[in-house]
Amino acid sequence: MSYCVHCGVELSDYHKKCPLCGTKVIDTTNVSSITNTDYPEYVLYTKHSKSRANRLFIASILSLLSFLYALIPLLVDLFINKGISWSLIVFISVSLLWLGVAFPFFMEKPTFFRLFTYDTLATSIYLLLLNYLISGNLNWAKFTSLGLGILWVIMGGIFITDRIRTILPLKFYYILSSVIVSVFFVLSINSETSLIYILLPINIMIFVLTLLSYFIVTAKIYDFLGLLVVILSDISIFVVFLNLILSKQLQGFYSLSWSIVVIIITIPLLATAFTIRKSKQLRKFISKKTHR
Amino acid sequence: MSKNKSLNWYKLDTSAKIYPAIESSRDPAVFRLSVSLTDKINPTFLLKALETISPRFPYYNVTLKKGLFWNYLQQNTNQLLIWPDSPSPCERIYPLLNNGYLYKIKYFNKTIALEIFHVLTDGFGAFEFLKSLIHQYLFLLNKVPLKLPGIIDILEVPKEDEYKDAFLTVLEQEKDNLPEKKRTLFGNNKIFQSSCKLLPKGDYRVITGIISITDLKKVSKKYNATITEFLAALYLEALIHLQALQIKNTKKHYDVAIQIPINMRKHYPTKCMRNFSLFVIPIINPQTVSNLGDIIAKIKAFNKSNLTKTHLLTMIDDNCSLATHKFIKHIPVDLKNLFISYINNTKGSSQFSGTISNLGNVSFPPQMVSHIKKVSFVPGPSPHEKCTCGVVGFNNNIYISFGRSTKDTFVEKYLFTQLVRMGVQVKLESTL
Q: ipTM greater than 0.90, yes or no?
């Protein structure tokens, strides 16, 4: 029978050190063999190192194949055209494939979010390079890359680590990310002035409505009717705003046309949901009529 | 239970519906119950015992299937398996590698363990199953008679009450007494969660402290508390000290909360063998307590207001209302699972700092007690809480098991050393 000199707890016969503080058992002559333990001995680390070796082997094979697939077109292009032209497209395509398929095997801890980050970045770079190689400037690829960036920001909020969450709460992460994305958005459509007057206000309206809705929903007790009221309000405000912006751009003046049709549907629904939520008697009557 | 040609199938009970969505290799939703006997385990007899008792528990011998709106449990007729125990308990159960079954019977040395996916049952149901298995095993070794009081009769036909959703039954019984006010599903308080680094996936360490019930009762009586209240308070105190260690600036300290499962069978007697537990979460603001006595007082006050029939009914109503919601019911299961998983990862799992689950004092018939050395209950790993606690009492001893997914042993070290300081002798057992 041995005791830990620091913790004061009694240790089992098989303990060579205290499981709480790691203090070694001074007299190990009475430590019984490993077969008297309550659990089998831990051996996970050997399995882990074996699988790591396999992954490196696969990664090496895939990398070698990618290198050959990228190199051969380059050499053919050089030989036939005495320069590098179409083979660049093949090269960047194979590079993207390597990043998506082979690179994860090199990673020690290939988590979903890490892989998603690398793939998003690689795809954005690939599209930008492709756009530049084909048309000599960056036009359509700016928007696809921005879209991928927005998707990454949304996924980042879901996978954001606990450590970052203690420094930057989730809602502030989304606010900050939206502001940064909006700035990039404005910079990217700087040359297309007509788009600024349509897309920028719409983007700001979506951002404001989302933020307001988030605060309203989190401030109130969560229930389906409350959420429905908020969503219908958002839709009504958004379609009116969109109608006004588009009419100003296309007709030169503000007017409401098609949005009236939409709000004719959403406002009564909103009012109904709000009334039902407030009235206990009405809720009881409806549930009595529709229960299963 | 519904008849599907010749095979039976079962709906998931209200609690079980979330587990297929949140289950992962870091959070397998598996817990472990084990019994150590006086002699080394014979695997042949153990498998025979399992095969003998399995028809009596058809709702455990199932496989998980996907429906359009919800998952369900389909009866499984594949060969039953038993496994040698593994160094890391509470591993994720892969049905494809387990002949479709959602539980594993493991054996090592003199110990028989049941590791079961929470979708099947809670601690009470699992323990009844394990008790039956141990009894049948000992019977096959000619050590105990076939029928014993307190052990489920394996020759009996399973009753409908055993596999019906007890939450819906209670809700049906009490529909005229349902309180008006709905509970807030998620609190607004920020709760402290340990920032210790996780061990590699699949690595789960367990430390069990064995304490005399008499000694523990003496100490808890000094604070005028029950054993559960006392241990919960000590656990909370450990978490408060852990936060003080990890976050030096006291102004940035969050509230500390623990999740305590409540066996609803004590409040609504039923023969239900599926999930029938609710979770209460006492929250402590570290700034408002200065010693263990203060924490115990807060827990007592919390229990007084939350363990009333009205509040428990509110909780059952809330739990059932989401699952039976008209709109939610008709959302496809894949979409529902995505949403449940997201809510669990962002809101659900951040509501508490740890879990302490007390199975209470378990009893065996006197004829079996002489063959049983000890019992243990280990809750499954959680990447958010990082350290969970299971408590079970047997034969004048209490077994407090801490399971952790981190290298750090601060919480269990604090709890056990505090008990030693109070004059309670603690003997430790652990994974190696």
A: no
In this prediction, residue A291 carries a pLDDT of: 38
The answer to whether the CB atoms of B420 and A7 lie below 8 A apart is yes
Does the distance separating the beta carbons of B184 and A222 come in below 8 Å? Answer: yes
Q: Which pLDDT belongs to residue B214?
A: 93
User: Taking CB atoms and an 8 Å cutoff, what residues of chain A touch B327?
Assistant: 224
Cβ–Cβ below 8 Å for A10 and B427: yes
The token pair at A101 is 């398929």
**Residue A25 Cα to chain centre, angstroms:** 49
Residue predicted with more confidence, B424 or B331: B424
Residue among A20, A37, A163 whose CB faces B432 most closely: A37
Mean pLDDT of B257-273: 90
Q: Do B409 and A19 touch (CB under 8 A)?
A: yes
Question: What is the spatial distance between Cα B108 and Cα B131, in angstroms, rounded to a whole number?
Answer: 17
Q: Which residue of B has its CA nearest to A5?
A: B417
Give buried/exposed letters for A64-92 (b at 16+ CB in 10 A, else e).
Answer: eebeeebeebeeebeeeeeeeeebeebbb
Distance, CA of B15 to CA of B336 (rounded, Å): 15
Which ranges constitute the DSSP H helices of B263-409? 292-306, 309-323, 326-329, 333-346, 366-369
Among chain A residues, CA nearest to B252: A166
pTM confidence score: 0.67
Q: Which domains does chain B have, with CATH numbers?
A: 9-152+167-173 (3.30.559.10), 205-430 (3.30.559.10)
Distance from CA of B420 to the nearest CA of A (A): 6
Residue B25 φ then ψ, to 5°: -70, -25
